[in-house]
Design a protein that fits this description.
Blueprint: E1 10-15, E2 20-23, E3 26-28, H1 35-46, E4 50-55, E5 66-70, H2 74-84, E6 90-93, E7 100-102, E8 121-123, H3 127-132, E9 139-146, H4 150-160, E10 165-170, E11 182-189, E12 192-200, H5 201-219
Parallel strand pairs: 1-4, 1-6, 4-5, 6-9, 9-10
Antiparallel strand pairs: 2-3, 7-8, 10-11, 11-12
Helix pairs in contact: 1-5
Bound molecules: ligand PMT.
Cofactor: Mg(2+); FMN
EC number: 4.1.1.36, 6.3.2.5
Family: In the N-terminal section; belongs to the HFCD (homo-oligomeric flavin containing Cys decarboxylase) superfamily.
Length: 220
Amino acid sequence: QPHQPLAGVKMMITAGPTREALDPVRYLSNHSSGKMGYAIAASAAQMGAEVTLVSGPVALQAPTGVQLLRVESAAEMHHAVMTTAVQQDIFVACAAVADYRPEAVADCKIKKDNSEMSIRLVRNPDILADVAALNSGPFTVGFAAETHDVETYAIGKLQRKGLDMIAANDVSDSSIGFNSDDNALTLYWADGKTELPATSKQQLAAQLLEQINHRYRIKQ
Ligand code: PMT
């Protein structure tokens, strides 16, 4: 039996992209593969946590010992998360959730009648901010995917959303971040920061969870 520092801890993790439907055959989405979030879920389960993984559409198998809830859109992910979020001890938001969705979903396939068309988008609910705002909710960890001014935006998200920790990744570097097998993270919390240098998403997940567990215990 491996060392189980997260035994008895309930952890919910979001992973993958969301798909925002335009019509029955089209959607808006992004390049998230789910690899980072699934690696965190697998590692948390190995460390003894009771893991619920809420995942957008990805091509990955459910990690061993993890309860997997599959969703498509940001609205579905929001619903799946909020149903049990208050019962969790730790929430990690690794999903690349679409910030906007088409205002209306066409019932039938949209036809190319005009030389131009525009699509009106409306804001999606912010899942991470809603979990962080719960009364006696879980210890919340957000991700920040940035292409520039990584530290400024990450600390802004930490403070504005009222998070316990944020993991920033620089997605302008294609060898790390979206869809690659490796990543690098900088973790920020209210009064500290630490760098987790580039390595496999599996290794990084274990290192991230060690840091989360440490800060979570301090907060208890
Ligand atoms: O899936 P991979 O290919 O392995 O790639 C991993 C990753 C790059 C997707 C991952 O490491 C990562 O950075 N995930 C967060 C991506 C993102 O959407 O970041 P953001 O800066 O736009 O969002 C900030 C935070 O708010 C994130 O924790 C996000 O999950 C959360 N959020 C955002 C919008 C929204 N409506 N609801 C949310 O919960």
